[in-house]
Amino acid sequence: MTALPLDVELAGLLNGHHLVAHVEGDRVVLPAAGAWADLRLYESAAGRFVMEVRTALPGGSVLLDTWAAWGATQQEARRDGLAAFCRGTFHVLLALWGILETDQVAHEVRTVAGRNWDVYLGPLVNRQSAGGAGLVPPTDFADAVLAIIDARMRDEAAHVVRIYHAMSQGKAMVTEALWDGEPFSDLQAAVAAADWGAIPSGFASTRWFLAVRPREDGHPGHSIERTCG
């Protein structure tokens, strides 16, 4: 696969959200967060596009997310992938980098095995056929997901969770749940069993990106709390 670096665009997003960042070699350095990150658009030999972001946090955790970038050309896929990044993953990672924008990301503190964890929940990012209905999760879906995630929150590291569910012509097409990029079978089963509503025709999908981080000395994982813009 060929890769198009998008580190200049990532640095621009970060500086636009008042987090100082600069491109250094093949990555973006975030001095205040003690972190680095990179953003890439990959094109397969078949002409399909995928965007990927990686970040390394203090303590050694390296977290990543990938998502489809739609478009017939590289430029179209670049625009679509960046838009999807901004709607979902970016603001969750921004919270891990120290800035929680409360109109973009929901925040909970959960106590697991006697330790407090910050949980950052991004919005559902939906796609559907033109004029078609979108997927709607059941009202208790978030609580069910968090209850399953609790069982994994036992170490000293930050982690990310990615859920993806797609339906086509009224049938489930793809269901995926990942913990740090690896299959999370218990969560995948719960996502597949959820009632996503009727999609009798066309295509509809939803993806959800979350992050969890143990608190150190009782302090939140973020240091700044505000709204976007």
Could you describe the 3D structure shown?
The protein has 2 domains: 87 residues, no CATH class; 131 residues, no CATH class. The protein has 5 helices and 15 strands. Helix content is 22%, strand content 40%. The mean pLDDT is 92. Strands 8, 9, 10, 11, 12, 13 and 14 form a 7-stranded antiparallel sheet that branches. It is an alpha+beta fold. The protein is globular, with a radius of gyration of 18 Å. A hairpin with a 2-residue loop joins β12 and β13. α4 packs antiparallel against α5.
User: Which structural class do you get from the secondary structure elements?
Assistant: alpha+beta
Assembly state (oligomeric):
single chain
Note poorly predicted spans.
none
Supply Rg: 18 Å
Give the overall shape.
Answer: globular
Number of helices: 5
**Major β-sheet profile:** 7 strands, antiparallel
The number of distinct β-strands equals: 15
Secondary-structure map:
Elements: E1 2-5, H1 7-16, E2 22-24, E3 27-30, E4 35-43, E5 49-56, E6 62-68, H2 74-87, H3 89-96, E7 99-101, E8 106-112, E9 115-121, E10 125-128, H4 141-150, E11 159-168, E12 171-179, E13 182-183, H5 185-193, E14 203-214, E15 224-226
Parallel strand pairs: 7-15
Antiparallel strand pairs: 1-4, 2-3, 3-4, 4-5, 5-6, 8-9, 9-14, 10-14, 11-12, 11-14, 12-13
Key traits:
229 residues, alpha+beta, 7-stranded antiparallel beta sheet, 6-stranded antiparallel beta sheet, 5 helices, globular
Quick synopsis:
Helix content is 22%, strand content 40%.
